[in-house]
Specification:
Number of strands: 0
Organism: Sulfobacillus thermosulfidooxidans (strain DSM 9293 / VKM B-1269 / AT-1)
InterPro entries: Ferritin-like_SF (IPR009078), RNR-like (IPR012348)
Structural class: mainly alpha
Bound molecules: fe (ii) ion
GO molecular function, one term: oxidoreductase activity
Protein name: Ferritin-like domain-containing protein
CATH class: Mainly Alpha
Helix content: over 70%
Oligomer: single chain
CATH topology: Ferritin
Number of helices: 10
Amino acid sequence: MIRVNPELTDEQLLRLFDKGTLGQWTPDAIDWGDMERISPEQRHAIAQILTPVYLGEQTAMFGVSAVLPDMLGHGHHEEALYLSSMGLDEARHFRNLHKLYRIFQEEPASRHRIPEMFRYHARLLSHKDSTEWIWGILISDLFAKHFYGGLYSRFPDTLVGRLARRTLRDEARHQAFSERYLEKRLPTMDEDKKGQLFILRDDLFRIMEAIGERLKDPMLTLAWEPSTFLEELFEDTERWVNRLYIAQPS
Ligand SMILES: [Fe+2]
Ligand SMILES: [Fe+2]
């Protein structure tokens, strides 16, 4: 249902889109210069644990482009505008991590080492309904919040800390979008569809636990306990489950 001149009435989403437009930045915004403040052992560990996130930035681009036609097709023009800016954010995150690997002279972990990271993204992209993807991307954005937040607190005055802090601002906007979108759509969904969201959350967490197990050693190198990380993330998603009245299917 593409219209030449649709109404744009959701001021909250329009403001978020404008914020997204104004919030664009390039790698020049970061001082990449002080790599030696992070030990070679830490750099190697960071390269390993960043791997699923690096893949996630790319699959987020893929997901945005997959749900955009659905949004436009249903006349959700404000959502489509916002998602267009989010696609550019994810592209920038991907490009920045690509640059970080080159500066570190490190490689991401091999796909054989963490096969579950592909399962995570396959599950995220297996949605029948765009709302499912947006719920999944909210969980992934909460993951990004805890992950980049943890990197920032460990390496505040370094290129990694600066990159993490700047990226966090983009991820906070993505969260605000998911919140607005879900608050609008969830009341229109039947219990069965909402139950699918509960199942998706559990599936994603099961996969994240397996990834955490694979990355335990490099995480411990950075004094980061995977189970603590996942517990905090789970609590964060639980607040959303309650807030949006998502119930476990009976
Ligand atoms: Fe991202
Ligand atoms: Fe994001």
